[in-house]
Specification:
It is a single chain. By secondary structure, the protein is of the alpha/beta class. The chain has one domain: 3-Layer(aba) Sandwich (Rossmann fold). About 55% of the residues lie in helices and about 15% in strands. The protein has helices spanning about 20-30, 45-55, 70-80, 105-130, 155-175, 195-200, 205-210, 215-225, 235-245, 245-270; strands at about 10-15, 35-40, 60-65, 85-90, 135-140, 180-185, 230. Strands 3-2-1-4-5-6-7 form a 7-stranded parallel β-sheet, sandwiched between helices. The chain is globular. The site of NADP nicotinamide-adenine-dinucleotide phosphate has 28 residues, from helix 1 and helix 4.
Length: about 270
């Protein structure tokens, strides 16, 4: 790209699949130009082409791996050099279920790098750009897991608690500027087969609370543009998380997750 594009863009991380892809579609449907960011090898160029044809908006893409520190800075530089960013959606995020002691050091490092560092550093590096726009928005994707520590998940809920706290603090700091910061704390979303079957195994409550990515994206963007500072997508899960005291939810959630590990182990042992 030779000259900076004069139009405004929405940047979405983790845009090749799941909730990120749903955010990209939702924003393009509302006629926002988009920049899609994902890991390499995720067919992002095809998605980008499809979005620009389908919704008649400008769509660009950038492939990178957030587990490498310098990649986050390189992405921020590329965005600042080429685009006016009026919406930033920090959606990329990973988790998993593992006994902490047995987890590989790279597994822990990558969760921290993608969920915490990429969110904070990208927002920091894009803030001057966001401030130059007449009105701009940051939406950080946390999780309902931010409200309860869970054994066998450990680092993921802690990383999402960071995302939640970081977003609330930044909202307060930027309250009187043109940058509005919001955070969403979804419960389970049917973004892939693994999540869907895991939640369905949790029984009626799991099935009742499972959400579809397109609906979540639609709701989040509506609430973001209406300047909702904390977006709650599933009221039932939110109510449970808010009402249950920590001495009930910590052992309860840990037991549920422990059962999942035992179930997966028994499947592996049988196959
Ligand atoms: N699904 C749920 O039940 C649920 C519930 C609560 C919160 N969330 C949060 O919602 C967000 C999206 O979740 P999802 O279920 O749609 O995601 P997903 O299908 O599990 O995929 C993980 C996301 O993180 C990105 N990502 C993973 N490793 C990366 C790396 N090294 N560098 C850059 N990007 C990387 C992926 O991007 P690409 O594949 O596009 O490269 C993808 O968007 C996450 O922050 C997640 O924590 C999900």
């Amino acid at each position: 790209m030779e000259e900076k594009n004069k139009d405004q863009f929405a940047v979405i991380t983790g845009a090749s699949q799941g909730l990120g892809k749903a955010f990209a579609n939702e924003l393009a449907k509302r006629k926002f130009n988009v920049v899609l960011v994902s890991l390499p090898g995720q067919n992002l160029s095809q998605l980008s082409d499809w979005i620009s044809r389908e919704f008649k908006v400008q769509s660009f893409y950038y492939e990178t791996d957030f587990s490498v520190d310098s990649n986050i800075r390189a992405l921020a530089n590329w965005l600042n050099e080429n685009f006016n960013v009026s919406i930033l959606i920090n959606n990329a995020g990973i988790g998993g279920t593992k006994q902490f002691e047995e987890a590989h050091i790279d597994y822990i490092d990558t969760i921290i790098q993608v969920n915490i560092k990429a969110t904070a550093l990208l927002t920091h590096q894009l803030l001057p750009n966001l401030k130059r726009q007449p009105q701009s928005f940051v939406l950080n994707v946390s999780s309902i897991a931010a409200f309860s520590p869970v054994g066998y998940k450990t680092v993921y809920p802690a990383s999402k608690a960071f995302v939640h706290s970081f977003s609330r603090g930044l909202y307060a700091e930027l309250k009187n500027t043109n940058v509005f910061v919001s955070v969403v704390n979804p419960g389970a979303i049917a973004t892939n087969k693994e999540i869907t079957s895991r939640i369905e195994r949790q029984g009626v409550i799991g099935k009742l609370t499972l959400l579809q990515p397109a609906k979540v994206a639609n709701y989040c963007i509506t609430r973001l543009l209406r300047r909702d500072t904390v977006i709650m997508v599933n009221p039932l899960t939110w109510l449970l998380a808010a009402l249950l005291p920590i001495w009930i939810k910590l052992p309860m959630m840990t037991q549920i997750i422990k059962r999942e590990i035992s179930y997966e182990k028994s499947i592996c042992d049988r196959s």
